[in-house]
Design goal:
This protein has a 5-stranded mixed β-sheet, sandwiched between helices. α1 packs antiparallel against α9, α7 packs across α11 and α16 runs antiparallel to α17. The model has no long low-confidence stretch (mean pLDDT about 90). β2 and β3 form a beta hairpin. It is α/β, with parallel strands linked by helices.
Length: about 475
């Protein structure tokens, strides 16, 4: 197998990543040779019309996600970055991890996918298990106790390097699957035989980027948003221990924190970590303000970058319902995205709000887009977010990718349900606005925009510019 790393977009991505060229080749060779095995680890996906009725099997979903994370992390820890056989090692796994045999819990389900049998490199498998456990909230003291002589400083150094390498791997898969490189490129043509491969690889990219943020914050995905809460001076408000205590008390979503009926659980969680009354008040205030402040910041940035569109941008952010759809249509026209069909008042019953074309109008070039709006701080719930599936089926449009735009926000619990989607993405209106602004300024291509918007799950700005 020949892997080309010429001065192309791929070469530039590898150069920016700081990875050894040998490591990049190692990653790409694995992706090409073990593509189907890797993609088989993605959570089982269902159609948009099934998501609302589908009960999430949390145990199965978590097992699937951990298996995928294990394979990805093991690939990194067994790469040339840590090998002294092919090149002087750039990074080191603490020596005590390489001398202790600890069999991971689910290793027998994924051993055949690893680049080598798990017990041929104990350092790689122990480092993988340690990083995954940290990302799920296991305490540093417990991790230190597993290996004699291991310190928190060693763990933080290991995780810091791992985050950088995972980002490099995600960027490589991103550029290969995101449409920036011609399909004639041998790396792309061997890796992506059909559009399904491309979509599934985009899901792998999103998974790795979530995995990175879990490692950065040291908490499970469902409560990562809490670690992003800020004090008035911009510093982080909640410690890892606070977040995990809230989660252990069943407080996971933004709505949970603000729910007056769960006040006792909130105080029980805060008592467990010795939080002061001032900190408790700050957490509630910051939770209420978090989204509002982020939306205002994005609005200000877009207006500063596109002063000629100032009025349209303000109307887009401030409108709801059919007014929002009208201003969004104006944005599509401004950028040059073709609107094939629209749901106009008094028109065809239950027709989606938009059918957009990104090519010659064939099914593979079109997407179905539905808008859902809420006033007074409301959020779009799962049932509304998946309504586009029923509308698309009614009109024979369900072979196209489907998108729901939530103005202003989708409920924070919906993202987890979307893990099992194979044809639906749900995006917050402000993230879509930022992506449209980037497209208008030619910071991204139309192909990259479409790929970002239609990758099943919840597209976020960090996916484009992370």
């Amino acid at each position: 197998m020949t892997v080309n790393l010429n001065v192309t977009e791929l070469g530039r991505v590898v150069a920016r990543s700081g990875l050894l060229p040998e490591t990049a080749r190692y990653f790409i060779e694995f992706l090409i040779s073990r593509r189907d095995d890797l993609l088989s680890l993605l959570p089982r996906a269902v159609d948009a019309v099934q998501i609302f009725d589908e009960q999430i099997d949390e145990a199965t979903l978590s097992e699937s996600e951990r298996a995928l994370s294990f394979v990805v992390s093991h690939l990194v820890f067994s790469s040339p970055e840590y090998s002294e056989t092919t090149t002087p090692a750039q990074r080191f796994i603490p020596f005590m991890l390489s001398s202790t045999r600890r069999e991971p819990g689910n290793i027998h389900t994924i051993d055949q996918i690893l680049v080598q049998r798990w017990d041929r490199d104990l350092g790689a498998v122990n480092a993988t298990e340690l990083s995954l456990d940290f990302s799920q909230g296991v305490s540093l003291s417990e991790l230190e106790g597993r290996f004699e002589g291991l310190t928190s400083g060693m763990i933080h150094g290991l995780l810091r390097d791992h985050v950088a390498h995972l980002k490099g791997l995600a960027d490589i898969i991103d550029v290969l699957s995101g449409g920036q490189i011609s399909r004639d490129d041998p790396n792309v043509s061997e890796l992506i035989v059909n559009d399904e491969h491309r979509i599934l690889l985009r899901r792998v990219v999103r998974h790795i980027r979530v995995q990175i943020m879990q490692l950065v914050h040291g908490v499970p995905e469902d409560v990562m948003w809490m670690r992003e809460l800020k004090k008035e001076n911009g510093s982080r408000l909640m410690s890892r221990a606070m977040v995990l205590s809230l989660r252990n008390n069943g407080l996971i979503t933004l709505e949970d924190i603000l729910d007056g009926g769960k006040k006792n659980k909130f105080h029980s969680a805060m008592n467990a970590v010795g939080a002061s009354d001032v900190q408790r008040d700050q957490i509630r205030s910051a939770t209420e303000a978090q989204r509002r402040d982020r939306t205002k910041a994005l609005l200000d940035r877009i207006q500063a970058q596109l002063p000629q569109c100032d009025n349209l941008v303000s109307q887009l952010f401030g409108s709801r319902g059919q007014d929002y759809e009208s201003y969004l249509n104006d944005c599509f026209e401004c950028i040059g995205i073709k609107v094939m069909q629209r749901d106009m008042e008094g028109g065809v019953p239950r027709f989606p709000d938009f059918v957009l074309s990104f090519g010659d109008g064939g099914e593979q070039d079109c997407i179905v887009l539905e808008c859902k709006s809420k006033d007074n701080g409301g959020e779009v719930a799962l049932g509304e977010a998946t309504d586009v599936g029923g509308k698309a089926v009614t009109h024979g449009l369900n072979r196209m990718p489907m998108v729901t735009v939530c103005q202003p926000y989708v409920s924070t619990d919906v993202s987890r349900h979307l893990k099992t989607s194979n044809d639906l993405s749900v995006v917050n209106a402000e993230d879509l606005a930022w992506a449209l602004a980037a497209l208008k300024q030619e910071k991204i291509t139309i192909q990259r925009f479409k790929g970002w918007l239609t990758t099943p799950g919840q597209p976020k700005i960090d996916d484009l510019f992370g």
